[in-house]
Amino acid sequence: MLLCFNLVKVMELTLNNGRCMINKETDRAKNGIFKNFPDFKSFEIAFKKQIEFFIDKMIPACEVVEKCHQLHLPSPFLSSVINDCIAIGTDVTAWWCQV
């Protein structure tokens, strides 16, 4: 499954205490604003915390999408060219869960 992660957005949120500059929402990790970081190491730590916050939100969402693909959007043609899908009799969207 291809995961898209907007690292630039995470940087924006890190620099603005978790506040989105478009809609002003602040339901992200709070870590201060850029001018208050005493050094680059402090910024790195805050950036890492913001990344971890979004990864924790992203993983369950990706699992839901993956399950929906298994149930509602199988890929039989793609499955026919992926090793072992035919041998084990399963679609590629479900095969990754069995590996």
The SS-based structural class is: mainly alpha
Radius of gyration: 19 Å
Note poorly predicted spans: none
Mean pLDDT: 80
What is the straight-line distance between the termini? 14 Å
What does this structure look like?
The protein has 99 residues and is mainly α. It is built from five helices and no strands. The chain has helices spanning 7-15, 40-72, 76-80, 85-88, 92-98. It is elongated, with a radius of gyration of 19 Å. The two termini are 14 Å apart.
Structure in a nutshell:
By secondary structure, the chain is mostly helical. The protein contains five helices and no strands.
Ordered list of secondary-structure elements with their pairings:
Blueprint: H1 7-15, H2 40-72, H3 76-80, H4 85-88, H5 92-98
Helix pairs in contact: 1-2
Keywords:
elongated; 99 residues; mainly alpha; 5 helices
